[in-house]
Amino acid sequence: PANNEGFTTTTLPVTGYPFTMSGWFNTSVTNIWQAILALGDDAAAAWFEMGMKNSGSQIRLYARSSGSNQQDATSPNTYTTGTWHHACGLAASATDRKIQLDAGTAGTSTQNITPIGLDNLSVGYTNAFTLRLDEADASLAELAIWDVVLDPGEVAALAAGASPPSIRPASLKWYMDLIRNKVDRYGAVMT
Fold first, then answer.
1. What is the pLDDT of residue 42?
2. Is 176 within 8 Å of 36 (Cβ atoms)?
3. Residue 128 β-bridge partners
4. What is the C-alpha to C-alpha distance for residues 73 and 98, in angstroms, rounded to an integer?
5. Residue 158: band (very low, low, confident or very high) from pLDDT cuts 50, 70, 90
6. 85, exposed or middle or buried, with CB in 10 Å at 0-12, 13-18, 19+?
7. 113 has which bridge partners?
8. Is the separation of the CB atoms in 128 and 40 below 8 Å?
9. In Å, how far are 45, 63, 89, 153 from 49, measured between CA atoms?
């Protein structure tokens, strides 16, 4: 979505650990924070966000539970603007979060963080502090959330083009392809 676009729902596919977020993105911008998927607390400083960093052409899985208790897992490899890339955030526990770009080497975060009070799922921005944060200026597709941490082979399959419903379908809790429309295939209605 371009700035001021995106979708949100108050029906959450997951409310905490463990989970996997996955999706494709294509952006021409590298100097702003851009959310792909986020689970947030509309009224507070608590959220998970998978998105693009504001420098370095890297992606991140960000966790924040309050004030200064926040940390990124940042991909060691970088994306190229104007090209489709796959992002996958793997959150096993409060001390085990990873992010992978195109199924490459995982960036990790081990700081003890457990966001609480999550009340929304957002696509293309983060909904927290009663604000729209980190609005994406990007095309997004094949977005999904599972209630498990996918294994390396499953992440590689997604990055190679496998459709999310073909990967652990019993654990897939939310999926929006965004290829032709904003019809949510699993989970909740987006507005």
1. 83
2. no
3. 131
4. 6
5. very high
6. buried
7. none
8. yes
9. 12, 7, 9, 23
Q: Does residue 15 carry a pLDDT above 50?
A: yes
What's the length of the chain? 191
Token pair for 167? 């990967």
- Which amino acid makes up residue 109? S
**DSSP-assigned states of every residue in the chain:** --TT--EEESS-S-SSSSEEEEEEEEES--SS-EEEEEEE-TTSS-EEEEEE-SSTT-EEEEEEEETTEEEEEE-SS---TTS-EEEEEEEEETTEEEEEETT-SPEEE-S--------EEEESSEEETTEEES---EEEEEEEEESSPPPHHHHHHHHTT--GGGS-GGGEEEEE--SSS--EEES----
- Note whether 25 and 52 are within 8 A (CB): yes
Per-residue pLDDT at 189: 46
| Euclidean distance between CA atoms 56 and 31, whole angstroms | 8
Whether the pLDDT of residue 191 is over 60: the answer is no
